[in-house]
Amino acid sequence: MRQLGKTFAAAMSPIAMAMAAASIAAATPPAAAQSSNETLVQGYIRFMAYHEAGHMLMNQIQGINAKTAATDAIESAADDFATLLLIPDPSDENGVNEMMGAALAWLKAGPRYSEDDPHAPPLARAEQIICHIYGSDPQSFAGLAEVVQPEWECEQKYADMLDGLVAEYANHTDRTGVQIDVSYAAPTQGMERAAQFLRDSTILEDLAYDVGQDFKLIRPTKLMAMNCKAMGGDSGTFHYDSFSGAKPEQNYDRIVICYELIDMWLKVDFDADQ
Question: Is the same domain home to 150 and 186?
Answer without folding.
Answer: no
